[in-house]
Design a protein that fits this description.
CATH class of chain A: Alpha Beta
Oligomer: homodimer
Largest interface: A-B, 40 and 40 residues
CATH topology of chain A: Rossmann fold
Number of strands of chain A: 9
CATH superfamily of chain A: P-loop containing nucleotide triphosphate hydrolases
Distance between the termini of chain A: 14 Å
Number of domains of chain A: 1
Strand content of chain A: 15-25%
Radius of gyration of chain A: 18 Å
Structural class of chain A: alpha/beta
CATH architecture of chain A: 3-Layer(aba) Sandwich
Largest sheet of chain A: 5 strands, parallel
Chain lengths: 204, 204
């Protein structure tokens, strides 16, 4: 196995709010600590338990704008009034180290990554249905009723966009969903296009 | 999960002789008994332990030719002087039942399946290098030195064709290789193109 050199890639997890993205991402990294997590920068306020530099790089709107103007972000997006950005330098460095990089990104942000010229695998995480999504948003307790109503309206457009991505994982059972994502990563590592110098290595 | 209907597909395992195809295929079916095995028809003599109707449908050359003329085969190929064929009816019935169908086929036969108009996932199983392949062919003891030399010469062309297939699994450790194939099947089940009536189901 070790003899064969394989290209690494970006893994983009996309989900409507309440798709269980953050939890699945955390579990993915636990099971595959060789995969690097692309820590996003954001202007939104930290939620309880979130740590600066681990969950997000929390920036003032001024600092975010300054970095954006310097071209430090691979992409930026505004979601529910907050700015989010993906660090270009961070991703390049990890890929060069031979590590995959996983990104936690919104539907709007995914397009810029997909069109960014790097090998990308996109996984859309979806709750099993709209009723479950609604329940989860209420249970999470992070949003006002008004914000939940907005997120549900947004979900309409987001689910309609699922067909633009490579994979769909239904997040019904969490352990199951994590295993599906792990299988996707493993399969993608075995895609023929990942292998470099295949024949040379075989006959060497 | 059950709410979402997904299309099934063909899984074609391709390998140079000595790639460990038969063993990996047997283990795949053990772990995923819902996957149907496409039993090939052949004019070659049974090897020790092979059972008619389970490993192959063993046919005389006359009977094989008659069936081929009737269009009963999805594809046929001649390998090392023996005829092999894949039953068209068998595959259609299993797919219609909602089962994937796995095929054990030679590099020559794979093209016909890939171009046959059904959804196909192709996996090339490869020994880690040509030295290991040579050892395995000798250890198996099924072939004369002359046949082994022929198989090794054929491997040159077969490995060169690896890039025509979707996935490459290096069969270094057997358990590992089986897990890679299982991950590929699982990932392919989650490909967005497998899902039918996605949005209708989500909002229902």
């Amino acid at each position: 196995m070790n003899r064969y050199k394989r290209h690494t890639f970006l893994i983009v997890l996309i989900a409507p709010s309440g798709g269980g993205k953050s939890t699945i991402l955390r579990r993915l990294i636990e099971r595959r600590p060789d995969i690097a997590y692309s820590v996003s920068s954001t202007t939104r306020a930290p939620r309880v338990g979130e740590v600066d530099g681990r969950d997000y790089v929390f920036l003032s709107r001024e600092e975010f704008t300054r970095r954006r103007e310097q071209g430090q972000f691979f992409e930026t997006a505004e979601v529910h009034g907050n700015l989010y950005g993906t660090s270009r330098v961070f991703i390049r460095e990890r890929l060069d180290e031979g590590r995959h990089v996983v990104l936690d990104i919104d539907v709007q942000g995914a397009d810029a990554i997909v069109n960014g010229g790097l090998p990308v695998v996109t996984v859309f995480l979806m709750p099993p249905g709209h009723e479950v999504l609604k329940q989860r948003l209420h249970t999470r307790g992070a949003d006002s009723d008004e914000t939940i109503a907005l997120r549900l309206r947004n979900a309409h457009g987001e689910v309609a966009r699922a067909h633009d991505f490579n994979y769909l994982v239904i997040n019904d059972d969490l352990d199951e969903a994590v295993n599906e994502v792990l299988a996707i990563v493993r399969a993608e590592e075995n895609r023929i296009s990942r292998y470099e110098s295949l024949e040379e290595t075989f006959w060497r």
